[in-house]
Write a structure and sequence with these properties.
By secondary structure, the protein is of the alpha+beta class. The chain is built from 14 helices and 16 strands. The strands form seven sheets. It has a three-stranded antiparallel sheet, covered by helices on one side. The chain has a three-stranded mixed sheet with strand order 14-16-15. The radius of gyration is 50 Å and the shape is rod-shaped.
Length: 556
């Protein structure tokens, strides 16, 4: 068999080619590896995903079916007479085989005639193995204008005509070549098609749509329909933070942390860096409020200094009043550390300064409250009690309490101090720069200690609220600490439920609100008497008031 030249006219089979097992076997069919590529290129050109394929019954047809069709594709066999076949592949290959043998035989005879002298030529036949080397070299152009090569190593991939059946399936059924697919040219030039001469089905003037589902536009992804073919799907919008920047994407792509998805979900945009700035309307409002209250507190301090020798200022230790007003001034100013672009210094100073100045303010109120209790709650103070009042022992509460708070802040700074951080999720399209607390345990210890001082001041002031005195401020101290505690008790749950700039604004608001509560409840009534009722701010009015109370015990 290896010495006899054999020609096959079936479809090209790679098993029979190039292995060396069949050196004398010649396949007349062209290589058909580009057939599937040609059909896919045609489908892509028209955007078809839901099509029917007509294949031959046999091994090649089934192989093509398994490689190019979905497993759940529906099959139907059509009789051969439904198609007007001018010449089948088999007939065409037999035609080429006959001409190939003829060319090989002619070449062999010519060569024998040239090599042998005229007198030595032998009459008679020849052996088939003598034709084999000539068949391997056969190369000619057939009557259809196509090149025929028998050597598999030099055989080219087949080129394919794209045929349109006019008036198919009933009627004329004329075959018209409307294009060509060639695998021998660059990819973008392989498919050539003249759509002007294509005749579609009856009453159809435009290229038909052949898809189970319409394409998913950018911003949507394909969601397969259960139990349907792969080309049947629904278009689902991309979730928040993900995009689809092309048509018919299988999965949405998540934007990087420094970018965000636009409203159409088809592009990732760069996030802008933001913080609670002085230029923002909210930042302007908070900063303006803080500065206004600071100026107002300084004016009250100046008013008290100007009227320092009047009874209302001297009552209940004017030195403590000065200390409280100065600490409240710094309380208002420390809120400005929370506004503007955060840096390492402001992050460290924010809560340290807050803890220090608020501790001074609350411990001053505690000292004032203890002074009231010691002066009026003890009905018969002895020498020791008088010495405590005269020596100003309650004033020592302020440095002691402040030292404890400074110790807590020092431990906080030494273990896990505040630091700059970014929040890329709280605000859409923005990266927020803010200060992180570092150690939350230390943060809550600072707040907890301040809260315990406030609770102690409130309790003592509440017990002394009904003590008789013309300028007794125990009632005002009670109400001021009630406002202070209410603000910070409300702050905690709201603080944990907010993020980004709203959280920073909540911190600033709580500082301003609690400081304003202390300033207003303690000093506004005294300012009212100093400015609008100066007649009450005199020893004469005090003596008359005390005499009236002595004559009317029920009013005490």
């Amino acid at each position: 068999m290896s010495k006899l030249g054999e020609l096959t006219f079936g479809s090209f089979d790679l098993v029979l080619s190039g292995s060396g097992q069949f050196p004398s076997l010649y396949q007349m069919a062209h290589r058909d590896g580009a057939l599937a590529l040609g059909m896919v290129s045609l489908m892509v050109h028209f955007g078809w995903t839901w099509v029917g394929l007509v294949i031959t019954e046999g091994q090649k047809g089934l192989q093509f079916l398994s490689n190019n069709c979905a497993p759940n594709a529906s099959l139907a066999w059509l009789p051969a007479n439904r198609f007007d076949v001018v010449m089948s592949d088999g007939s065409y290959n037999i035609y080429n085989a006959v001409y190939a043998v003829a060319h090989a035989l002619q070449e062999m005879l010519l060569q024998q005639g040239q090599l042998q002298p005229l007198g030595n030529r032998k009459e008679g036949g020849f052996s088939q193995w003598q034709l084999h080397p000539f068949l391997k070299k056969v190369q000619f152009i057939n009557s259809a204008g196509e090149q025929v090569i028998l050597d598999d190593n030099r055989k080219l991939e087949a080129e394919y005509d794209i045929v349109n059946f006019w008036n198919f399936p009933e009627g004329l059924r004329q075959r018209v070549t409307v294009g060509r697919f060639s695998p021998h040219v660059p990819p973008r030039q392989r498919l050539s098609l003249d759509e002007n001469i294509i005749e579609w089905a009856t009453e159809m003037t435009q290229t038909p749509r052949s898809a189970c589902s319409e394409s998913c536009s950018p911003g949507f992804r394909k969601a397969p329909r259960e139990g349907k073919a792969a080309c049947c799907f629904d278009c689902t919008p991309c979730p928040e933070g993900e995009i689809a920047n092309d048509t018919d994407m299988e999965q949405c792509v998540k934007c990087p942390a420094h970018q965000y998805a636009n409203n159409q979900r088809n592009r990732c945009l760069q996030k802008s860096v933001t913080f609670l700035a002085y230029e923002d309307p909210l930042g302007k409002a908070l900063a303006g409020t803080a500065l206004s209250l600071t100026v107002f507190t300084v004016l009250i301090l100046g008013l008290f200094v100007k009227h320092r020798d009047t009874p209302i200022v001297k009552a209940n230790n004017r030195g403590l009043s000065y200390t409280l007003l100065v600490s409240l001034t710094f309380c208002f100013l420390c809120s400005l550390l929370f506004i503007g672009r955060p840096n390492t210094a402001t992050c460290v100073l924010q809560w340290n300064m807050f803890g220090a100045v608020f501790t001074v303010a609350v411990s001053t109120i505690l000292a004032k409250t203890i002074t009231v209790v010691l002066a009026f709650k003890v009905t018969a103070p002895g020498r020791r009690m008088r010495q405590l009042l005269v020596s100003g022992a309650p004033n020592s509460i302020i440095p002691i309490c402040s030292l404890v708070q400074l110790t807590l802040c020092g431990i906080w700074m030494g273990t896990s101090p505040p630091f700059i951080d970014t929040d890329a999720h709280s605000e859409h399209g923005h990266i927020i720069i803010l200060c992180k607390k570092g150690s939350l345990t230390a943060f809550y210890c600072v707040l907890g200690y301040l809260g315990s001082l406030a609770l102690g001041s409130f309790t003592l002031a509440f017990l002394a609220r009904n003590l008789p005195d013309t300028f007794n401020e125990a009632k005002y101290l009670t109400f001021s600490m009630l406002v202070f505690c209410s603000v910070w008790v409300t702050f905690l749950p709201v603080y944990h439920s907010t993020r980004g700039k709203a959280m920073v604004a909540m911190e600033v608001f709580s500082i301003l609100a609690s400081s304003s509560g202390l300033l207003g409840c303690i000093f506004f009534p005294k300012c009212y008497i100093i400015l609008l009722r100066p007649d009450r701010n005199s020893l004469h009015w005090i003596r008359n008031e005390n005499a009236f109370r002595g004559n009317n015990p029920s009013s005490v």
